[in-house]
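Posting this for the archive.
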Amino acid sequence: ISTDLIEDWYVRPGFTWNFAKNMRLNTAFSYEHGERSPGVEGDAHSGERYDWMGTTIELSYSPTRRLVVGLNYRLTLRSSSVDSQEYTQNRVGIMVTYRMQ
């Protein structure tokens, strides 16, 4: 059995603008900083320090009271004291939501 401790802090503000009839723009930003305590000997991630940063933008339109369609984009950057844990991610999504009531 092994375990480790992760201490982190983060901030994740988000804003929504209703700028035209039935149209909404959502934006968000996130930042997280963390540290993993030294754990099991031989664990490559032991003692890691990392920073995660991300931003999201989403545009949605509601042509009817029950239907919402949207397009979103998210960029995530992760830096780390462990090279193999660093990455950049770009994500694009399409959303279709139908409400029954």
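The chain has a mean pLDDT of 90. Strands lie at 6-11, 14-20, 23-36, 49-61, 67-80, 87-98.
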